[in-house]
Design goal:
Elements: H1 3-19, E1 46-48, E2 56-58, E3 64-66, H2 70-76, E4 83-85, H3 88-92, E5 96-99, E6 108-111, E7 114-121, E8 125-128, H4 132-139, E9 147-150, E10 159-160, H5 172-175, H6 181-185, E11 191-196, E12 199-201, E13 204-207, E14 211-217, E15 226-227, E16 242-247, E17 251-257, E18 260-269
Parallel strand pairs: 1-4, 3-5, 6-9, 8-10, 11-14, 13-18
Antiparallel strand pairs: 1-2, 2-3, 6-7, 7-8, 11-12, 14-16, 15-17, 17-18
């Protein structure tokens, strides 16, 4: 993964954190809550912390995903009834994996600086709806009421796919059958590497592009996972803590422990 790619992921996370404004209806942080422990979280849970009302999706890869705004949230959920509360300390232990994108097929979107209207396909793919006639065929006579204006800053959360030049180019019904954010993003349980007093175990894993690896410190001492090219790294991982890294591009990603350079390993991405 290039430095530019890492920077892009960081900026996306920063943008999402800075603008999220989802309100959790009917509760305040001052009210007594039954907090869920990290051990009792399940893939697909909706979570929030004590202090702030932002709601996140807990992905199968062990990371939390940001709903950039209320409109995005409402394409996936109709209420906040199933949100689980975590302590702020526990929430902070869950890495941010990125932003949630619109549920495919539900709404069309556009941004202020682009006159095009897009349908949303799986994986956050935007497809230009090239004519009013196609929009009517896909979304009905009130198609222009099915468009959400999206802040320009969120556009980088999406990929631009092929244009829709006829209604048959886009199966709205099929797109809407995507059942979860896990499915939409292709999230899955990460491969596991443990760091102990003798090094990494196992010392290497093989994953497919887009997959994640969880590095867990099973030792009493501090450790790191630092890329050989210094383009990525965990920082200090204390005993019992974890660091998750997603590898988007094929290649060999060597790494070492900054506290003990003789401890090395590699992730092979196919």
């Amino acid at each position: 993964m290039t430095i530019a790619t890492n920077l892009k992921r960081f900026l996306i996370a920063v943008i999402a954190i800075s603008v999220i404004f989802i309100g959790y209806i009917g509760f305040t942080a001052s009210q007594a809550q039954a907090y869920t422990s990290l051990a009792n979280l399940s893939s697909g849970d909706l979570i929030r912390g004590q202090t702030f009302s932002a709601v996140y999706y807990y992905g199968a890869d062990g990371q939390r995903y940001v709903f950039p705004n209320m409109k995005t949230y409402e394409t996936w959920y109709s209420n906040f009834d199933d949100v689980k509360w975590l302590t702020d300390a526990d929430l902070a232990k869950i890495q941010i994996g990125g932003n949630v994108t619109y549920k495919p097929g539900v709404k069309m979107i556009k941004i202020n600086t682009d006159p095009k209207t897009y349908a949303v396909a799986a994986g956050g793919t935007l497809r230009h709806v090239t004519s009013e006639a196609i929009a009517i065929e896909l979304y009905g006579s009130n198609w222009n009421q099915q468009i959400h204006d999206m802040p320009d800053g969120f556009f980088s959360n999406y990929n631009v796919g092929t244009a829709i030049n006829s209604a048959s180019d886009y199966n709205k019904t099929s797109e809407m059958t995507i059942a979860s954010i896990n499915v939409d993003k292709g999230l899955k349980t990460p491969a596991a590497i443990t760091i102990n007093s003798s090094g990494y175990s196992p010392i290497d894993v093989t994953v497919t592009a887009g997959s994640s690896v969880r590095f867990t410190n099973g030792d009493t001492a501090k450790h790191t996972v630092t890329g050989d090219d210094l383009s990525w790294g965990s920082g200090t991982i204390n005993s019992g803590e974890s660091f998750i890294k997603t590898f988007d591009e094929a290649g060999i990603y060597g790494f070492f422990d900054s506290y003990d350079g003789s401890n090395t390993g590699a992730v092979y991405v196919e």
